[in-house]
């Protein structure tokens, strides 16, 4: 399964120590289970069972994670072969809710893609608006106009960051007279858009033909399909008399009664519209907050698709999702270094990285069956000859975005982006790999894209809860990576995918280790080996070994610390609640929904975030288990300190004390938010009280069954 070809790939040196460590660590795991099987302790049945379940889950996840570590490989970029003509490129940008995704931001993202250093007659930017918002459309109309000065300005000055919002906000800009003039134009545009957004509708003075569909019966949940060409290459000329690229606004038809399949459905609609209008062989998918940070990206990746010496079955090129606006200590571990940087390198050594949903260049053919089993369209290479603004063509484009179009077809099952999981990105990439497509991870020093992450804890865990529901939808389906996937992509890749799919199960060990050692220590029940027992060192080795390896891969101690804390926080919130939501969906209670991540900035909140404070603020039930853990750990810690002072049981309890101290250190921001803070981000008193009550209850329950 290993990837060959020295000129394209470079094996990373860490794979050797990784393999050695994996051997040692797996011996330690075996020893642990040997002890579980043979040791006679005075733990009760209930606690022993949960402990074994916790340790089995940890061992299973550890086994999965080894697949990422066994053969990490970096890709070597190749210069674009000069004698080749660049193919056409269709860029897909999705937006879904103008109240959570500010129209100005969507427009700025579109501008950053329109401004690519790419032949304008070969570049088309498609916006899919699942919110069917005239405000978003208005912002895009404004962007199309502003683009006519912005594009030549960027190209003449060789600007790299071509999202106007980010560019004017960055510290390195020198404001000469031209720059100031452009900034004024941008500010005017910004003001117009923000005024309209504030009003909530587009006034008559701005109502051009493109808004004609928005009428009385037009709502975001029920409306006909809209396809509007806002810029047309060859027709629209910029301020330097060069052609503009194409810009197309699409809002697929919606009916209350049909299933829209969320983002996957939106992307499939774009696949068909673009096949009708431009049919570029290469497609870039972007979220509406993912701006381009490097105008040469499309040129740079074409080598993978065009160079004959590279794998002809290349399905997609994945860039790491990198973020701007993350605070220095990365409070919520939002960088997701493991998911977006370390693990993709691990998969790059086999079939290739998973699909992250954004920052991905696709081979259009990958959406139509396996490399050797294409299932339509009849002529995937057809060149679109008519004008994209041609009336007949636009009618076809409208037709392919109606609710009924997909009925009785393979869309979402065998072709296009796949339906059935709320992580359509993960699921689609996985299915493409199973069909035989390969992918490649491209991680240039200068980030190709910059995205944003939520800055309130509730938004963070709500996002991961949705991911968890989607992951379980794959894990517990007939496409389970370990049974189905293994047959097509091999064991290593299957374990990589399994690592994510079963991620929500982290809550089994995390809940155990957050509550049980602490409560049992309070009632003087020892559950780990004594400090003088040689087995104690085994436990310490397993604990420190896993954490240590994680730290080494992370490099920055502070970021690592916050990242491991978020792992625990997720285990006590989104992993648990995601699993519960998945179960209730399966039972038919409550429908599946894609809760769009909030991208609106609150100034006060941003200030607190930049200071590194946790943002609780809202009374979210997901804060309850982690508050309970904070309380129980603190009480146990104080109790433990007393016991140690009296030097009673210190030998028996050392392991439990180590975990409790770790729990308290991790909970410091929770105590602060409960007691010390008075700002809007403090822990709501209601949550604190509920947690106190439930923590006491849990204490009573566990202490009464601890010896059973
Ligand atoms: O019905 C929907 C719902 C969402 N979106 C768009 O999907 C994108 C991602 O949504 P967001 O709320 O930002 O979700 P995140 O969890 O931040 O997104 C991550 O996770 C998603 C899967 O859950 C992937 O689709 C994304 O690419 C990936 O960045 C956004 O551009 C949305 O506008 C739609 O087009 N239609
Ligand atoms: Mn997002």
TrEMBL record:
It comes from Salvia splendens. This is Cellulose synthase A. The chain crosses the membrane at residues 20-37, 43-63, 496-516, 536-557, 623-645, 657-675, 687-706. Keywords: Cell wall biogenesis/degradation, Glycosyltransferase, Membrane, Transferase, Transmembrane, Transmembrane helix. The active site is at 130, 425. PANTHER family: X-BOX TRANSCRIPTION FACTOR-RELATED. It comes from the Eukaryota. GO terms for molecular function: cellulose synthase (UDP-forming) activity. It is a multi-pass membrane protein. UDP-alpha-D-glucose binds at residues 100-101, 130. Mn(2+) binds at residues 263, 287. GO terms for cellular component: endomembrane system; membrane. SUPFAM superfamilies: Nucleotide-diphospho-sugar transferases. Pfam families: Cellulose_synt (PF03552). InterPro entries: Cellulose_synth, Nucleotide-diphossugar_trans. One of its GO terms (biological process) is cell wall organization. It is found in: Endomembrane system. Gene3D superfamilies: Spore Coat Polysaccharide Biosynthesis Protein SpsA, Chain A.
């Amino acid at each position: 399964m290993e990837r060959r070809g020295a000129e394209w790939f470079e094996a990373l040196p860490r794979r050797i120590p990784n393999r050695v460590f994996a051997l040692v660590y797996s011996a330690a795991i075996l020893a642990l289970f040997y002890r579980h099987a043979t040791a006679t302790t005075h733990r009760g049945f209930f606690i022993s069972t949960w402990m074994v379940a916790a340790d089995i889950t940890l061992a299973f996840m550890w086994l999965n994670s080894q697949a990422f570590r066994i053969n990490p490989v970096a890709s070597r970029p190749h210069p674009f072969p000069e004698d080749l003509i660049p193919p056409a490129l269709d860029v897909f940008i999705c937006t879904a809710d103008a109240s959570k995704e500010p129209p100005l931001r969507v427009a700025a993202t579109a501008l950053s893609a329109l401004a690519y250093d790419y032949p304008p007659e070969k570049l088309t930017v498609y916006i899919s608006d699942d919110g069917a918002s005239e405000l978003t459309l208005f912002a895009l109309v404004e962007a199309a106009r502003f683009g006519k000065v912005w594009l030549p300005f960027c190209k003449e000055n060789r600007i790299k960051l071509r999202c106007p919002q980010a560019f004017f906000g960055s510290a390195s800009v020198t404001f000469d007279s031209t720059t100031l003039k452009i900034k004024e134009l941008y500010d005017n545009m910004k003001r117009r858009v923000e005024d309209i957004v504030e009003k909530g509708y587009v006034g008559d003075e701005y109502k051009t033909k493109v808004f004609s569909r928005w009428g009385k019966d037009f709502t975001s949940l029920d409306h006909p399909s809209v396809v509007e060409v806002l810029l047309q290459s060859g027709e629209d000329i910029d301020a330097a008399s060069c052609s503009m690229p194409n810009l197309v606004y699409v809002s697929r038809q919606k009916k209350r009664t049909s299933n829209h399949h969320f983002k996957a459905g939106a992307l499939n609609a774009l696949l068909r519209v673009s096949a009708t209008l431009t049919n570029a062989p290469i497609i870039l998918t972007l979220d509406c907050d993912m701006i381009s940070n490097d105008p040469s990206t499309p040129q740079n990746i074409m080598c993978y698709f065009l160079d004959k010496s590279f794998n002809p079955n290349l399905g997609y090129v994945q860039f790491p999702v990198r973020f701007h606006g993350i605070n220095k200590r990365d409070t919520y571990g939002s960088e997701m270094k493991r998911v977006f940087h370390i693990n993709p390198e691990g998969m790059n050594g086999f079939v290739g990285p998973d699909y992250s949903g954004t920052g991905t260049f696709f081979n259009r053919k990958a959406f139509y069956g396996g490399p050797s089993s294409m299932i339509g369209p009849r002529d995937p290479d057809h060149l679109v000859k008519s004008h994209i603004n041609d009336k007949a063509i636009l009618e076809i484009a409208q037709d392919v975005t109606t609710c009924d179009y997909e009925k009785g077809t393979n869309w979402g099952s065998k072709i296009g982006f796949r339906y059935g999981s709320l992580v359509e990105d993960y699921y689609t990439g996985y299915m493409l790999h199973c069909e035989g497509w390969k992918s490649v991870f491209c991680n240039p020093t200068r980030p190709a894209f910059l995205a944003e992450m939520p800055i309130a804890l509730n938004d963070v865990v709500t996002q991961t809860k949705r991911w968890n529901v989607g992951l379980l939808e794959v894990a517990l389906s007939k496409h389970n990576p370990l049974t189905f996937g293994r047959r097509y992509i091999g064991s290593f890749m299957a374990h990589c995918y399994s690592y994510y799919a079963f991620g929500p199960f982290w809550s089994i060990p995390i809940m155990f280790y957050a509550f049980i050692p602490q409560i049992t220590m309070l009632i003087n029940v020892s559950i780990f080996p004594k400090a003088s027992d040689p087995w104690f060192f085994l436990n310490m080795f397993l604990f420190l070994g896993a954490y240590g390896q994680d730290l080494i891969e992370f490099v920055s101690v502070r970021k690592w610390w916050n990242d491991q804390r978020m792992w625990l926080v997720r285990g006590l919130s989104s992993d648990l609640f995601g699993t519960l939501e998945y179960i209730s969906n399966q039972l038919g209670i409550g429908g599946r929904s894609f809760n769009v991540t909030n991208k609106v900035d609150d100034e006060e909140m941003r200030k607190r975030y930049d200071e590194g404070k946790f943002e609780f603020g809202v009374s979210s039930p997901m804060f309850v288990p982690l508050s309970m853990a904070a309380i129980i750990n603190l009480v146990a810690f104080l109790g433990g300190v007393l016991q140690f002072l009296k030097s009673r049981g210190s030998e028996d309890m050392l392991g439990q004390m180590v975990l409790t101290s770790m729990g308290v250190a991790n909970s410091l921001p929770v105590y602060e938010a409960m007691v010390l803070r008075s700002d809007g981000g403090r822990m709501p008193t209601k949550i604190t009280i509920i947690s106190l009550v439930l923590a006491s209850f849990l204490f009573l329950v566990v202490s009464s069954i601890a010896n059973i």
